[in-house]
Design a protein that fits this description.
It is built from 15 helices and 14 strands. With 445 residues, it is an alpha/beta fold. Strand 10, helix 13 and strand 11 form a beta-alpha-beta unit. The strands form three sheets. An eight-stranded parallel barrel has the order 2-3-4-5-6-7-10-11, surrounded by six helices. The protein has a two-stranded antiparallel ribbon with strand order 1-14. Strands 12-13 form a two-stranded antiparallel ribbon. The mean pLDDT is 96. The chain is globular and about 55 Å long. The protein has a single domain, classed as Alpha-Beta Barrel (TIM Barrel), CATH 3.20.20.80. The chain binds beta-D-glucopyranose. The site of beta-D-glucopyranose has 10 residues, from loops.
Length: 445
């Protein structure tokens, strides 16, 4: 997609231009969840502390003002379950009151909230019982969802049950970088994803019971796995295996209510999950090339790597993001079109402290979405990850995804050039050739 743009790319009226974030990463002092315990146990590779994060619990409104000034009309945030239900079965009205203030503040500023119920964090009591592997995880999650929609349903009707269940399961039970830090436990990873699928389905039903007109979905992380040598059948096979395990499991559970062989042997009956979404939320960042390698059975014989000279964000201490690949958004849209549901890009972004590539990424993402619309896909919105630099999980403050730079010590903010570009796009509801000339210096070779 490197052809010069000659005409403005205009989006349909009402297209959502938003930003996305999550409670633990931006609220500050979220000390009653398993990620705080993980941090206390010394697992943040940079040694950083989340601390006040972006200080949203006290003053999200200041950043909402910034988002409004950019002309955004949507914002995705998550609720901190550990604040709402600090002890099992005990709900805290003070936490609900603060979320009501925040949702009202968004509405007053003309931004539609998209609310995620579980974005990687949950209360310590839930973790101690076995998190999503616990026998009663599904009713516990459904009860929390019911409480939330009863309390907040007059301010929000757009819900995302679980953020990236495939990432939670893979990083928590296979790779071990996320709590509970298990490595190589494929069985637990599949079972955790299966139980999250049941939890999602139960929440979908409970939300609709309380709020029949609600729009409910989940946010799915799609990573593109391409065969390193497209003509090589073994590379193609191992790339497909990676794709099946990571990208396809949850999507298939929602679409068909089952799992493909051999995952079905571990997943059990998924028929209750079928049809439980009103929209598709897609989180898209990167692509890996995959080459057959008989020495790594633990990675399903697929060695993942990034092609030389591919655009890449800043590197973290441990985590490799691969090639920044906006074209992946278009490929994923094609892939999920069969659901026949509205599609939202619920996350897309890059760790880029110096804003080297972010303007290019935003422009390419916008072009790809516009091309998908022109092919007839029902794309309704784009939520850039993220508004202000936030606490990047096990990488801490090392990776900077914000349109606006943050100094977490002083809480000072400084907009990056990308913020001005994204604001111009949102205000115009279009991308123009002039914007590219003005803001984009990087072009991939
Ligand atoms: C997660 C975010 C995270 C982002 C960048 C997504 O997978 O949902 O919480 O900050 O990626 O790594």
């Amino acid at each position: 997609m490197n052809d010069p743009l000659t005409q403005p790319l205009v989006f349909p009226a009402g297209f959502r231009w938003g930003v996305a974030t999550s409670s633990h990463q931006c609220e500050g002092e979220t000390t009653n969840n398993q990620w705080h315990a993980w941090e206390q146990a010394g697992h943040i590779t940079s040694g950083d502390r989340a601390g006040l994060a972006c200080d949203w619990w006290r003053n999200a409104e200041a950043d909402f003002d910034r988002a409004q000034a950019m002309g955004l009309n949507a914002l995705r945030l998550s609720l901190e379950w550990s604040r709402i239900e600090p002890r099992m079965g005990e709900f805290d009205p003070v936490a609900i009151a603060r979320y009501r203030q925040m949702l009202r503040a968004l509405r007053e500023r003309g931004m539609e909230p998209l609310v995620t119920l579980h974005h990687f964090t949950h209360p310590i009591w839930f973790e101690e019982r076995g998190a999503f592997l616990a026998p009663d995880a599904v009713p516990r999650f459904a009860r929390y969802a019911e409480h939330v929609v009863q309390e907040l349903g007059d301010l929000c009707d757009f819900w995302c049950t679980i953020n990236e269940p495939n990432v939670v399961a893979t990083f928590g039970y296979q790779i071990g970088d996320f709590p509970p830090g298990r490595k190589g436990d494929v069985r637990a990873a599949v079972q955790a994803q299966a139980n999250m699928a049941h939890a999602h389905a139960a929440a979908y039903r409970v939300i609709h019971r309380v709020q029949p007109a609600a729009r409910v979905g989940w946010a799915h992380h799609f990573n593109i796995f391409d065969p390193a040598r497209p003509g090589n059948p073994l590379d193609r096979l191992v790339a497909r295996l990676q794709d099946d395990g990571f990208n396809e499991f949850f999507v298939r559970a929602v679409r068909l209510g089952d799992a493909a062989f051999p995952l079905n042997l571990l997943a059990g009956d998924l028929s209750d999950v079928r049809g439980t979404c009103d929209f598709l939320g897609i989180n898209c960042y990167a692509r890996d090339l995959v080459r057959f390698d008989r020495r790594i059975p633990t990675e399903l014989f697929g060695r993942r790597f990034t092609r030389p000279h591919a655009p890449q964000g800043d590197s973290g201490v441990g985590r490799l993001y691969g090639e920044i690949y906006p074209a992946g958004i278009g490929r994923v849209i094609e892939r999920v079109r069969g659901f026949d549901k509205p599609i939202y890009v619920t996350e897309n972004g890059i760790a880029d402290r110096d804003d080297r590539l972010r303007p290019w990424l935003i422009v390419e993402a916008v072009r790809v979405m516009h091309a998908a619309l022109a092919r007839g896909a029902d794309v309704r919105g784009y939520y850039h990850w993220t508004l202000v630099d936030n606490f990047e999980w096990n990488e801490g403050w090392g990776l900077r995804f914000g349109l606006i730079a943050l100094d977490p010590i002083t809480q000072e903010r400084a907009p990056r050039k990308s913020a001005t570009l994204y604001a111009a796009i949102a205000r115009a509801n279009a991308l123009t050739p002039e914007m590219i000339v003005e803001y984009v210096s990087y072009r991939p070779t």
